[in-house]
Amino acid sequence: MFPAARYMEIKTLTVVGAGIMGRGIAQVAAMGGYDVTLVDTEEKILQNAYQIIQKNLQKGVELGKVSPELQAASIDRLNTTTDRALAASKSDFVIEAVPEIISLKMEIFQDLDRHCPPHAILATNTSGLSITEIAASTRRPDKVIGMHFFNPVHLMKLIEIVRGLETSNDTVAASETVAARMNKETVEVNEFPGLVTSRINAMIGNEAFYMLQEGVASAENIDKAIKLGLNHPMGPLELGDLVGLDARLRVLEHLHATLGEKYRPCPLMVKYVKAGRLGRKTGQGVYDYSSK
């Protein structure tokens, strides 16, 4: 059962940012029955996202996990636009999914606050930035919340729900309803740098890079040891390539600045990012994906 509604019914949902996370969020929102608008600054990014969502749904049908009826209904409920103001003006709930740069997020939230109707809830898909600071850039801090999704969104079950200082109970309840409609499980965590999962993941991934730098083992054997010895579904270096080493580095830099030396980024990771070896999205990270 969904949490009892003490807020305006949510029918329209906007996702800002059509990258890996944004398109995944848009897909599960459409599958959950919401009328979804996916927003980005470039039409070609939106077209690519739309095609990937279609492929994901088709694969779900082929695997017997998505019915043809749900596939068709989800595509029908999904729209794309480069007009963020227009999309915001029709939204009951907005989820921002842009890079982990707080100045960028605050700029977007200020814009959403201007254009969204007064009842609209604004969520940020941050892995550890301050909800309170982002909320303070708006005139509705009680309606601002963190919803930390995981990649790939259509397969991963968890969303971390994060309160800011002024986030209301109604906003939390509405966010849990949205998550439930997306067929996700939630955990509520207090605002703190890195939340729960990002702190652990960042530390494991960083330590794996230190071992690679020190020659403890090859990348393949580090990942194999963690998968077979600790029963992780992916090795930490594989996961870093999937998430994006630039994103992993930004999280580590934030944790290092706020929580201290144990999160100091490995110099080898910094070198990879400077070289543009960011992982799967660039064709090369710790591993080479150029032939795949």
Which secondary structure elements does this structure contain, and how are they paired or packed?
Layout: E1 12-16, H1 20-31, E2 35-39, H2 43-62, H3 68-77, E3 78-81, H4 84-89, E4 93-96, H5 102-115, E5 121-124, H6 131-135, E6 144-148, E7 158-163, H7 169-181, E8 185-190, H8 197-214, H9 219-230, H10 236-243, H11 245-259, H12 267-274
Parallel strand pairs: 1-2, 1-4, 2-3, 4-5, 5-6, 7-8
Antiparallel strand pairs: 6-7
Helix pairs in contact: 1-2, 8-10, 8-11
What would you say about this model in short?
The chain has 292 residues and is an alpha/beta fold. It is built from twelve helices and eight strands. The protein has an eight-stranded mixed β-sheet with strand order 3-2-1-4-5-6-7-8, sandwiched between helices.
